[in-house]
Amino acid sequence: MKEWQKITFNALANVAVALIAGGFLKVFYYQKDEISGVYVASMGLVALVLVSYIAKRIEK
Fold first, then answer.
1. Do 27 and 34 meet the contact criterion of CB atoms below 8 Å apart?
2. C-alpha span between 47 and 13 (Å, rounded)
3. Which one of 7, 12, 17, 34 has the largest count of C-beta atoms within 10 Å of its C-beta?
4. 23 in Cβ contact with 39 (< 8 Å)
């Protein structure tokens, strides 16, 4: 994998982890918005899985 691809996938993975953390924080701090917090966290998890899968496919 080329260096720019590693940097790009690392940045996308960081964004996905930030979405997951933001979703959990939204659930814990704003109990009224539980559905949206879970939605944000799940979208972050989906993004992280997708980025990991694409990086693994490129690596092969």
1. yes
2. 8
3. 12
4. yes
Cβ proximity of 23 and 41 under 8 Å: yes
Query: What's residue 47's pLDDT?
Result: 92
Identify the CA nearest to 45 among candidates 5, 18, 26, 9. 18
Q: Quick one: tokens of 49? A: 């899985």
Please give the Cα distance from 13 to 27 (Å, whole number).
Answer: 21
Position 45, amino acid: L
The residue assigned the tokens 């980025």 is 51
- Residue 46's alpha-carbon distances to 34, 42, 50, 59, in angstroms, are 18, 6, 6, 20
Mind listing the pLDDT tens digit of every residue in the chain (60 residues)? Answer: 788 888 888 999 999 999 999 988 888 888 777 888 889 999 999 999 999 898 888 887
